[in-house]
Amino acid sequence: MSQEAFADKCGIDRTYISGIERGIRNPTLEIINIIASGLQIELTELFDFSTKPES
């Protein structure tokens, strides 16, 4: 999915998503929650570093 499509899905400006990816923007918890919803995952999954990625 493109940045633009994802931004539209989340209702966030594409340039804001780009800024987050590049480390220029620091999203609020509200924005992080919106992003998690757009990814169809729980907010806690974005912060759970204890699980190893599937190989």
UniProtKB/TrEMBL annotation:
Please give the superkingdom of this protein's source. Answer: Bacteria
List the SMART domains hit by this protein, alphabetically: HTH_XRE
CDD domains in alphabetical order? HTH_XRE
Which Pfam families would you find in this protein's record?
HTH_3
Q: Which InterPro entries match?
A: Cro/C1-type_HTH, Lambda_DNA-bd_dom_sf
HTH cro/C1-type domain segment(s): 1-46
Q: Which Gene3D superfamilies match?
A: lambda repressor-like DNA-binding domains
Which PROSITE patterns does the annotation name?
HTH_CROC1 (PS50943)
SUPFAM superfamilies xref list: lambda repressor-like DNA-binding domains (SSF47413)
Q: GO terms for molecular function, please?
A: DNA binding
User: What's the protein here called?
Assistant: XRE family transcriptional regulator
